[in-house]
Write a structure and sequence with these properties.
The complex is a heterodimer of chains A (292) and B (260). By secondary structure, chain A is mainly α. Chain A has eleven helices and no strands. Helix content of chain A is 75%, strand content 0%. Classes of the chains: A mainly alpha (292), B alpha/beta (260). The A-B interface holds A 170-183, 186, 190-191, 195, 291-292 and B 60, 62, 65-66, 90-91, 93-95, 97-98, 100, 102, 104-108, 116-117, 120-121, 153, 155, 166, 169-170, 173.
Chain lengths: 292, 260
């Protein structure tokens, strides 16, 4: 007669396995449902307002029927400008931290600085931007004040993403490059950065999305007004963005159709963000096919 | 100094004298002295952790990319000290190529993998590059298999093909020495046989140093064999002699499987 083995019966662990699987699947489903409901309700409310006139008219200050043409432009313009400032700095800092800084105390301090900057609430950055750029530098509420302050929000994220993506480059590939007589710079440019490109790109789009939706910083630095000419590329004019407009019309309350305008603006923002995320997928797949 | 007793016609390419290697406080290699001859295959065998891979990496200073290291004693290539002779480590790595344990092709096309090295040194002309790529692929016995798909990704090749591609990539910068760090440990027996065949062909005008776990492999491909144990060189001699009449009792015990 065989002695009983001191093992737990398999049936029980198989059951737990199945329950966990189901629970996790359920959580994922809830997440998708909430998102679908959320986006659905915003689009449903905004749909009736969304037409060519709304997108192509200038906003009104007292009467109903205003559009959001300059706000769309300002949003995209500010995101582009802030990324143009933040990308070289963030990329450079990220490359430095991943490849050159070593493992010393200096790196830990630098990382602490970046993390602190990343964790700073945007309203605090907003006040900083207003005090330094709007008042001390005398730039007043303008595109340039907004772009520079927004860049402060973007730099730590881009730095971190660049550092992480470079750290994830397999050591074997770098060794192969060094082994052939490549210098450090050649290895970074020809092997590490191409490999890290998809990660950096994804981070960049997430940053763009965050900057696109940011309101607090821009209320205090780019202002709640917009230039009367269109398109106005000057850096010295105020530049109200979509999210600032959304906040302003609902809190100011002078417009009779504030609710509709807010709903339409929200719908436009959601559509732009969806398009942004979709385009990064396509781009990501394209780069992957080219480099792997 | 342990040295083989038969007269050797080929010159000494790499020469090591009283060499120590420290990693932090730990002494990984201890008092090594040996000569490696040009156009010969030298195998380094020994149990895991005996420092044989570390020793190999000292020849092209590749471990310096991850941590500062301390090498004392002499390590010379053509009589010039690798660490103190004013040799630039980047230039050294061009002259002393390396094939790694796991095939590590770049995630690029087959052509771009081989052209990577020459491009580093400023070769831009298409016809010249084509010539170098074909030549390197022929030397690594890969040309006939890949000549029609040079544009395809190298990561889609079989493991054995990838490793031969890595050899081709190393050959494309015309190295004088080729270091191989257990190049077949991730390959099946057929792919291994092909690489071994290649090693024997390549020694025509190359100095090859191969680290291997596989004693039969050392016996098949090498002219000289060095046996390492706990960071020390126990014995080095003609491969034939090491495998038939080793001088040290420890070598014999290891080869017959009594420890290791």
């Amino acid at each position: 007669m065989a002695a009983a083995l001191p093992f737990r019966p398999r049936r029980l662990s198989r059951l737990t396995n199945r329950i966990m699987h189901l629970a996790l699947w359920g959580l994922a489903l809830i997440f998708v449902l909430v998102l679908a409901l959320f986006i659905g309700s915003i689009l449903k409310q905004g749909w009736s307002v969304l037409n060519f006139g709304f997108l192509s008219r200038m906003p009104e200050t007292l009467d109903a029927g205003g559009g959001i043409k300059p706000e769309i432009f300002n949003s995209l313009y500010l995101v582009a400008l802030s990324l143009a400032i933040a990308l070289p700095i963030g990329l450079g800092a990220g490359i430095y931290m991943a490849e050159y800084a070593g493992q010393g105390r200096a790196l830990r301090f630098l990382r602490l600085c970046i993390e602190t900057l990343a964790a700073t609430p945007s309203i605090v950055l907003a006040l900083f931007g207003m005090i330094v750029f709007v008042q001390m530098m005398g730039w007043s509420f303008s595109i340039r004040s907004g772009a520079v302050t927004l860049a402060l929000l973007n730099i730590p994220v881009i730095t971190r993403v660049t550092e992480m993506s470079l750290m994830a480059v397999p050591r074997e590939l770098k060794e192969a490059s060094y082994g052939l007589g490549a210098t450090k710079l050649q290895t970074i440019l020809k092997v590490a950065l191409p490999h890290a490109a998809t990660g950096i790109l994804t981070g960049l789009v997430l940053t763009a999305g965050r900057a696109f939706g940011e309101s607090a910083i821009l209320v205090f630095t780019a202002g709640t007004n917009t230039s009367q000419t269109f398109p106005d590329f000057r850096l010295t004019v105020p530049g109200e963005t979509l999210s600032v407009h959304l906040w302003y019309v609902t809190s100011d309350g002078t417009l009779p159709d504030a609710r509709e305008i807010a709903a339409g603006t929200a719908a436009v923002m959601i559509v732009v963000l969806l398009a942004l995320n979709l385009s990064v997928r396509v781009l990501d797949r394209f780069i992957r096919r080219k480099t792997r | 100094m342990l040295s083989p007793q038969t007269p050797e016609t080929k010159p000494v390419k790499l020469s090591v004298r009283n060499m120590d290697f420290r990693y932090g406080e730990k002494k990984v290699l201890d008092g090594l002295s040996l000569d490696i001859h040009a156009e010969r295959v030298t195998a380094i065998i020994g149990p895991s952790g005996c420092g044989k891979s570390t020793f190999l990496k000292c020849f092209n200073r590749i471990h310096e990319i991850s941590a500062p290291v301390k090498v004392s004693g002499d390590m010379m290539i053509d009589g010039v000290d690798i660490y103190r002779g004013g040799i630039d480590e980047v230039d050294l790595r061009r002259r002393v190529g390396m094939v790694f344990q796991k095939p590590n092709p770049f995630p690029k096309s087959i052509y771009e993998n081989v052209a990577f090295g020459p491009r580093l040194f400023g070769v831009k002309d298409k016809a010249t590059l084509d010539g170098i790529v074909e030549d390197a692929l022929r030397k690594s016995a890969l040309w006939d298999e890949v000549k029609d798909r040079l544009k395809e990704s190298a990561t889609g090749m079989s493991g054995g093909q990838q490793q031969r591609l890595c050899i081709a990539r190393a050959l494309a910068v015309n190295p004088e020495v080729l270091l191989m760090d257990e190049p077949c440990s991730a390959l099946d027996p057929i792919a291994t046989a092909k690489i071994e065949e290649l090693i024997v062909e390549l020694k025509e005008n190359l100095t090859i140093v191969i680290v291997t776990h596989n004693m039969q492999q050392a016996a098949r491909v090498s002219d000289y064999t060095a046996f390492f144990w706990l960071g020390k060189l126990i014995e080095m001699d003609l491969t034939e002699r090491i495998f038939t009449t080793p001088r040290e009792r420890m070598t014999e015990d290891y080869l017959t499987g009594r420890f290791g």
